[in-house]
């Protein structure tokens, strides 16, 4: 998952002139936090103070503080736009994330429409490197999301949300040690937020019905295959995170072995070792004898 803004630290070249914002309110929903955390990260590393945001946005320090904390009311688009404009953040992904969070906060479509229409802004295009990156990762990200969320609509929605958060955080992402890893953990966090759970772990058993083996089998062979794959996917869901991700991408999503390290942001050697441990763990969970010397 992308680093929490509450724990973020400014880079060495950044000089803070004011106090960091207070922690995000526990009342802020997950979709509200999806855009609020990147905004706080940019603010925290910008060198600006709340007084600076007051001067640039035209809103009071109390209103700015409430927005940065996600405290009290869900902020109208006008003040939200004023803050991100002062911080130099892109508008298109912010509009989409703000709308989704407004619905989460029980704001009606008419209120949302009126808020957006009150503010004139230009829709700038995404950075070309960002566009190339998201296009390259689209298929594996979509397949991974679909494995847990089951429907194409839900999977596409989560990938789009991930891409919007990544766009908002693009400077931070590209300044990180590993862009691919940063983006993967972000996607993973958004998928797991919505995945069905079983005893605290994501539940992959329903994904069995989308496999080629089950679609191809006819009774009674279909029932045998269904039982075996259900046990397999249940075992996969109990793996440590990286092992589960490798297994899902390879065995459920059909992503070629050579692409998986790039998708996960791992070196080929580490990805190979993770895959090896995943196979051994699954075999142990299923009670398969180890015949390797």
Task: Quote the average pLDDT.
Answer: 85
Given as residue ranges, the uncertain stretches (5+ residues, pLDDT < 50) are 1-17, 211-226
| Rg, nearest Å | 22 Å
Q: Reading side by side through the largest sheet, how are the strands ordered?
A: 1-2
Domains counted in the coordinates: how many?
A: 2
CATH architecture of the largest domain: Up-down Bundle
**The CATH topology of the largest domain:** Butyryl-CoA Dehydrogenase, subunit A, domain 3
The string of secondary-structure elements, in order, is HHHHHHHHHHEEHHHHH
Number of helices: 15
CATH class call of the largest domain: Mainly Alpha
Strand element count: 2
Largest sheet properties? 2 strands, antiparallel
Residues in helix, %:
55-70%
Structural class: mainly alpha
| Beta-strand content bin | under 5%
Shape: elongated
Distance between the termini: 38 Å
